[in-house]
Write a structure and sequence with these properties.
This protein is mainly beta. Strand 25 and strand 26 form a beta hairpin.
């Protein structure tokens, strides 16, 4: 019953804790004029940045130069002793992604689509490790999730994504082994900006969007931004819509250069299906039969959040920052799932059914004090902080029976009798963390040393509503995490580095097979790499070798419980992931921009269940590669105003389950874009443009299997946009 991968679990939450960040800020000695010698090291051009903790990416076209993700202050990517990537604002405009999976699909090591077509959740992995619960951050604050309560991301509300790969608990507290994805919300602009769009796409996708920003008036230091979207859309799967209403107001007060307050808000309502999976026959082969029941397949999610980022420079040495956010989410869903042939009529497939209602509330606050000073010839940037996370999650779940699926009329819906809730689960979690980190710069050497200690307390109450029997589980977790990294900034611009980092992720909930709480997941990484920002060229090349060891990992497995087969989280002993990544980003003056990457990942099970030890982790390709190129014809060309984009994503072979008895075939998926700026015809059309984007251009819909259950790749999707800016 793998379609219930999310919707049926009650206590499958992984690492439901908060975050905090400690890292280095580029020393003042390295912030002088670009290209000048400073203490024997060449400061590279175009990477001078101003302080700030909001996570905004400083970028030139497709090339991200700095962000706060690696350090909690704006720091050039080449100075962060860990693998880091970005999806810039220009990339978002050119590719116009419609989901978070589309947004990150061209970043190194990122495995999207392991569960085929499924608009319900943004589930993906990096370096062989799932990041759905432990690796999604919003504006440098953790975006927690529990059960099926996972925040949905609207890409149109983002101005970029910054990605830090590998264990990062010394920065963020409880996180996973693969890394983290920092989603950066659109912020107010000091210059006026206005945009409206009308869109139409595949499967009757009607969408309108607007984005308005600028100063409130000409006198006061107040700035605003209001971003919104309305979508009415079907999908390739019957009874699985993709409807959304989204509104995101933002406000900034900047009375002087030393003080800034930014308020970020969001509300969205999304309607989709309770399940989107296809039926797997008794041999495990995925069919074209929708496993759900079109008459009993609804999922409505409401989410809201509001937070602020405050920064004040106290003097030439100290800067204080406080970032906070409160988030709420509710989801109400009905689902049905065909799981086996009917014993009497071979044309029928028996279906189970269920309903659940979940609510999640999370509050996160992070306080930081940064100090920049010198001790002789050594520059220091010290960052100290304290953060707190409060999370409460409530889940009601009920199980029933749906009328069988009739394979002679597979799209017919059948009414389901009302289903009562059987169980109630409530989790309360507190997390506190304190951290200290120093970036030490001497001549061309940069040494980063940081450590953090976390305390996590989780109380879980499970109630059987049929008997009123209550089970209470209390978990206490605490751990120290650290990172040490050394980089050398050569005179010719190449920056080699080496680092060691650890991660700690307490796992709330219990193993439903054993009834025991999950142990905390721990990981450590050794990484060496090199970064090169080419002189006189807007091109960044990075490469890294990594080795990650993780123990007490959580993964999904179909288990026969007393109530029937169910896809639940179980705990594996140990995984080792080793690999190599290389990435190149460039935006040139001739109109060409591109991103390219190759990743080799060897994810092996060192300790696990019988029949899996020594095998490779399910659905993790050993080889992945991607290339996206966009070219805009320049003035003087007979087709000036035209833009053409083409992308290819290669996924190598992977195993369909941890038993490694069969393989998923390799595949190449193509994406494309075509745009035209009407101002090239006449200046009176300035601001008007047309763009068409396509994903999976050749409509490859091959089976993809993960954890022993099979899905289908999402088919071709196209969307056209008429855009006007002023």
């Amino acid at each position: 019953m793998n379609s219930l991968r999310f919707s049926s679990r009650i206590l499958s939450t992984s690492a439901l804790t908060g975050l905090a960040i400690a890292h280095f800020l580029t020393p003042a000695a390295a912030q002088d004029a670009a290209g000048q010698q400073q203490d024997g090291a060449t400061v590279l051009e175009d990477i001078i940045v101003n302080g700030g903790s909001g996570g905004v990416i400083q970028a030139d076209g497709y090339v991200g130069k700095s962000s706060a993700t690696g350090t909690k202050t704006d720091t050039p990517f080449i100075e962060v002793p860990q693998s880091i990537s970005s999806v810039t604002e220009q990339q978002l405009k050119d590719r116009d992604p419609q989901s978070l999976l589309d947004t990150v699909a061209y970043t190194p090591g990122t495995r999207v689509g392991a569960y085929g077509f499924d608009p319900r959740f943004d589930s993906f992995s990096v370096r062989g490790f799932d990041v759905t619960y432990t690796g999604i951050f919003r504006d440098n604050l953790r975006q927690p999730g529990a059960g099926s309560s996972l925040f949905k991301t609207e890409p149109y509300g983002l101005e970029g994504v910054s990605i830090l790969r590998g264990p990062s608990s010394a920065l963020y507290g409880a996180t996973g082994a693969g890394g983290l994805y920092n989603l950066i919300t659109k912020r107010p602009t000091e210059e006026p900006f206005h945009e409206v769009q009308l869109q139409y796409g595949t499967d009757q996708r009607y969408q309108s969007r607007f984005d308005l920003s600028g100063p409130v008036n000409n006198e006061d230091p107040f700035y605003y931004r209001l971003t919104g979207l309305y979508r009415d859309a079907n999908t390739e799967q019957i009874s699985v819509p993709d409807d959304r209403v989204y509104i995101a107001p933002a406000f900034m007060w900047k009375p002087d250069e030393d003080t800034k307050l930014t308020i970020l808000g969001e509300y969205s309502r999304t309607k989709t299906g309770g399940t989107a999976a296809y039926y797997n026959d008794p041999t495990g082969k995925v069919t074209d039969y929708f496993a759900g029941n079109p008459a009993f397949n609804d999922s409505i999610q409401n989410q809201a959040r509001i937070g602020y980022e405050f920064e004040h420079r106290l003097n030439d040495v100290f800067v204080f920052r406080q970032n906070a956010r409160i988030s709420t989410l509710s989801i109400d869903a009905d689902w049905a799932f065909a799981y086996a042939p009917n014993a009497v009529n071979p044309n029928l497939l028996d279906r189970s059914a269920g309903t659940f209602d979940e609510q999640l509330m999370a509050f996160v606050i992070d306080n930081q004090l940064e100090a920049q000073f010198e001790t002789g010839a050594v520059d220091h940037t010290v960052l100290a902080g304290l953060d707190l996370t409060r999370l409460r999650w409530r889940s009601l779940d009920g199980r029933g029976v749906s009328p069988p699926l009739d394979t002679t009329n597979p799209t017919a819906g059948a009414q389901v009798a009302p289903i009562d809730f059987d169980t109630r689960s409530v989790q309360d979690q507190w997390q506190a963390g304190t951290y200290l980190q120093d970036q030490i710069r001497y001549d061309a050497w940069i040494l980063t040393v940081g450590g953090r200690y976390d305390w996590v307390s989780t109380d879980t109450d499970n109630t059987d509503l049929n008997t009123n029997a209550l089970t209470t589980i209390t978990q206490k977790d605490r751990a120290f995490s650290g990172r040490i990294g050394l980089a050398y900034q050569t005179d010719f611009g190449v920056v080699p580095y080496a680092s060691y980092s650890t991660a700690f992720a307490p796992n709330a909930g219990i193993n439903k097979e054993t009834g025991q709480p999950f142990q905390a997941t721990e990981s450590e990484q050794e990484e060496i790499g090199v970064k090169y920002l080419l002189p006189d060229s807007n091109t960044l090349i990075t490469a890294a070798l990594f080795n990650i060891d993780q123990k007490n990992s959580l993964y999904y497995e179909v288990v026969n419980l007393p109530t029937g087969p169910e896809n639940i989280q179980v705990q594996r002993g140990k995984i080792r992931s080793r690999g190599f990544e290389i990435e190149a980003n460039t935006s040139l003056d001739n109109g060409l921009s591109l991103v390219a990457s190759y990743t080799f990942t060897d994810a092996e099970i060192l300790e696990g269940t019988i029949g899996t030890v020594g095998n490779y982790v399910s659905s993790v390709p050993r080889h992945m590669a991607s290339l996206w190129a966009n070219y805009r014809f320049q003035e003087g060309s007979p087709i000036y105003g035209l833009g053409v984009g083409l992308g290819a994503r290669y996924l190598g072979k992977s195993y369909t389950s941890d038993e490694n008895t069969a393989q998923n075939g390799s595949r190449v998926l193509f994406d494309a874009a075509l745009s035209y700026d009407f101002a090239a015809l006449d200046k009176k059309y300035e601001g008007l443009s047309l763009q068409v984007n396509a994903t999976n251009l050749f409509d490859r819909r091959e089976p993809i299997c993960s954890a022993g259950f099979c899905y289908r790749d999402q088919g071709r999707a196209m969307i056209g946009s008429l855009r006007y800016t002023w």
